[in-house]
């Protein structure tokens, strides 16, 4: 009996937490592409290199960010920050980003298009 009740309490607590996490992420944070431009300096070293390959510590491919869907980028960054997505460097980097930073950066990258190909910040 106790065990049964305990299980329900845990499930209820988890669903409250899940709801909280979802609403915290969906809070009224509006991305600003201009503000984002000033926040991507630390991303360019990896995302934005020719051929999207980095040579350290070994050759690996880096995803292109410019022109990707804004919500997708935001979700990806939150995912790394929360640990749902696993990639050490991305996790370390997103740890220092606020929700506003993430929204701004996502807005900035989403605003890139094929005509901004030569954009050095891409
Ligand atoms: C040290 C290199 C490095 C730096 C610096 C870096 N990234 Fe990444 N990033 C990667 C790699 C490699 C991946 C692919 C990881 C994987 O497979 O999950 C990635 C993945 C991503 C993804 C997921 C893309 C997708 O298509 O799923 C996003 C979004 C992203 N990075 C944004 C950023 C932003 C924004 C910054 C700067 C705040 C940044 N990254 C800095 C290497 C880097």
How would you summarize the topology of this molecule?
Elements lengths: L1 H24 L7 H5 L3 H4 L8 E2 L5 E2 L8 H13 L5 H8 L3 H12 L12
Helix pairs in contact: 4-5, 4-6
Bound molecules: heme C.
The site of heme C (HEC) has 19 residues, from α3, α4 and α5.
Compact description:
The chain has 122 residues and is mostly helical. The protein has helices spanning 2-25, 33-37, 41-44, 70-82, 88-95, 99-110; strands at 53-54, 60-61.
What does this structure look like?
The protein has six helices and two strands; from the N terminus they run H-H-H-E-E-H-H-H. It has 122 residues and is mainly alpha-helical. It has a two-stranded antiparallel ribbon. Helix 4 packs across helix 5 and helix 4 packs antiparallel against helix 6. The longest helix has 24 residues. The chain is globular and about 60 Å long. The structure holds heme C (HEC). Heme C (HEC) binds next to helix 3, helix 4 and helix 5.
């Amino acid at each position: 009996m106790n065990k049964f009740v305990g299980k329900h309490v845990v499930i209820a607590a988890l669903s409250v937490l899940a709801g909280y996490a979802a609403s915290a992420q969906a809070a009224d944070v509006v991305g600003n592409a201009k503000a984002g431009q000033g926040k991507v300096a630390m991303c360019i070293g990896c995302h934005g290199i020719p051929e999207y390959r980095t040579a350290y510590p070994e050759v690996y491919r880096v995803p292109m960010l410019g022109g990707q869907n804004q919500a997708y980028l935001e979700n990806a960054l939150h995912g790394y920050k929360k640990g749902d997505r696993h990639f050490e460097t991305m996790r370390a980097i997103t740890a220092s980003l606020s929700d506003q930073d993430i929204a701004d950066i996502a807005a900035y990258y989403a605003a890139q298009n094929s005509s901004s190909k030569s954009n050095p910040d891409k």
